[in-house]
Amino acid sequence: MTASADVAVFEAVKKAPAATYPHALRWYNHIASFGAEVKTFPGTKKAASAYGPAAAAAAPAAAKAAPAAADEDDIDLFGSDDEEEDAEAERIKAERLAEYNAKKLAKPKPAAKSLIILDVKPWDDETNMTELEAGVRAIELDGLVWGSSKFVAIGYGIKKLQITCVVEDDKVGTDDLSDQIAALEDYVQSVDIASFNKL
To answer: For residue 128, what are the contacts with CB-CB under 8 A and spacing of at least 6?
Structure first.
């Protein structure tokens, strides 16, 4: 894109450069092709001496002449130098973090639950399985819900009780539940966990 800087240098050059400078000649011909339209180019027109290597060399000299604003140690590359703003930002951040943690604690967490299938084996084929099931279902614990059950043949006329329950992991331990079922000594020989699935 051409700008007023091109026009200032074009007017200072006055004639086309020699063919030994093809890039400069191409640039000169390009600017000359605009004719009177060059006066409408964008930008502020400066003297031709404000452009080029002499101007570039003058800029660092001017920068060296200006006193340094701060030591290198005081340079903050990632933010403001204003410590009051930093302290205020830290205070706001701490408040928001405290609000978030308070909301997180107040939010009720869903209880972790497990689906357990228990195999309750009787002593022999003469054990009353209906009473065994009633004894097992009579066990009540906070966080324990009994589900479906069935009698499964083991062999030689003996059946085991296969019963499903849902427990809240924080409230009911499988060992405690198995011990309470095994405490029905008149009916129960052993208790095994057939299946244990997290919900």
So the answer is: 187
